[in-house]
Amino acid sequence: MPTIQHLPSAGPQFSATVGLGSFKHKLQQGMLTPGGELHLYKQHPKVAEALMNAVHKHQIYIKRGGLSLAQVKKLKPEITQADPTLTYTGKQLVRKTLLHLSRAAAEQKTAPAEKSPEAIARNLTRRRLESIEEAQSRQAGLEAAGSIYDKYRETSSIIQRPPNPAQSATAPVNRPANSIADSQRRPSRVPSAPNSRPGGAPDPNFRPVR
C-alpha cells in the first residue's frame, strides 16, 4: 500500500514530472490506491495540484539536497489554502509530504541502519572487540620489549661483573714458566770468602797477593 515513503526522496536523481519514478507519477499512483495514505489527495484534487506545482517550482532545491525547514514552513500554508475544506489530517499530510522532500529526511535516509537499535548494538560490540584486540596487542608488545630488556641486563651484568676481592687474594699469581723452572732447578749461590775452601773451611795454602 503506497505511503509517503513511496514518493521519491530529495537528491540529484529527483524529478518532479518526468519519468515513471517522478514525484507526479508516484503521487498519482498513491492517489488511485484506496485505503492508502496518499489516497486523501484524491478527495482534495486542488491540494494535490498545488503540491505538484510547488514541488516543480522548487525542484532545483530538492535536487541539491532537499528543502530547508524554512521552505517547508512557508510552502505548507500556500498549499493548504488551495482547498478551504481541507481537514487537520489533510494539513498534516501536506506537512509530512514536504518534510519527506526536506534535507533532513534525505540525510537520515542515506544511513538509516546507523540509527537503528540493532546497528547501534553491532557497532558497540565491534568497537568493544577492537579495543580488546588493541589492548592485547599492546600488552604483547610490552611483554616482548620487557623480555628483550631482561636479556640485555643479564648479558651486561655478565660482561661488566667486577672481580671478587676474596677470589683475587687466593688466586695464584701468573708468572712465566721459565722463571719458575729456573728457580727450582738452580739453587742460590752464596759468595764465599776468597781464603775459604768449598764448604766454608779456611784454605791453608792461601797467600794474599801483595
Strand and helix map with partners:
Blueprint: H1 23-31, H2 40-43, H3 45-57, H4 59-63, H5 69-80, H6 88-100, H7 103-110, H8 117-159, H9 165-170, H10 177-185
Please sum up the structure shown:
With 210 residues, the protein is mostly helical.
Can you tag this structure with a few keywords?
single chain; 210 residues; mainly alpha; 10 helices; rod-shaped
Cα radius of gyration in angstroms: 55 Å
Individual helix count: 10
How much is the average pLDDT?
A: 77
What's the count of strands?
0
Task: Characterize the largest beta sheet: strand count, sense, and whether it forms a barrel.
Answer: none
What general outline do the C-alpha atoms trace? rod-shaped
Distance between the termini: 159 Å
Quaternary organization: single chain
> Into which percentage range does the β-strand content fall?
under 5%
Series of H and E elements = HHHHHHHHHH
Q: Which percent bin holds the helix content?
A: 55-70%
Which structural category do the helix and sheet elements fall into? mainly alpha
**Weakly predicted, low-confidence segments:** none
